[in-house]
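Duplicate of earlier report; Protein kinase-like protein input re-posted below.
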Amino acid sequence: MNARSHNRIIEWTEQELLPQLAIRSEHPGEPIRVDRYPQHSKLLGAGNYAAVFVPSSDDMDQYAVKVYAPGREGWEEEVEVYRRIGDHPAYSCCFHAAETNGVKYLVLRRLSGKTLYNCILEGELIPERAISDIDEALDYARSRGLHPHDVHGKNVMVSGGRGLVVDISDFLKVEPCMMWDDLKRAYTRIYKPFLSKRPVAIPEWVMNSVRRGYRFIRSSSKS
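Output:
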């Protein structure tokens, strides 16, 4: 990645992606809706705040562009989180952040891999080294004055046997979050003894039931 490629992805974002993009926020607690985006691009995913796109061009596929939906907050906070994180192998990094015609976006280094959630769904091995990598990455974030938050199976990845943290947008929140500790506990007590030697695909309905049960238990403990 160099200055020329940085300029190309910014130009693509502002001249092709944003003018042809239609995203909207229907409810603060639900993922945003992506109604339209350029033909020569790919939607990687949409969360509660923003959607992430990559260009189809091979010489720019190392980048990801995160576009915030109108009315959704958090862009400024995410820019600050990336500023503090700097360059770390377990995280993406932010090359550019701007607001164009009222639309806020970030140009990020694209992370490739498979989320822990998808590893379980597809019966792919989750190596212990990946868990250790994520643990170390979260400790690094704390050393930078951040507070790891919302770290769960869909926000962390395995890539080449190593662990990556995908979403750090909530790392300025100061309230305690036990998601990662709970996931590690499940990995140690359930995954390692029963699934690590011979991983099997787990149906999505089972995963959804576990997720709903976890939310119920956590909300009950808070109340």
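The chain is about 40% helix and 20% strand.

Merging into the original ticket.
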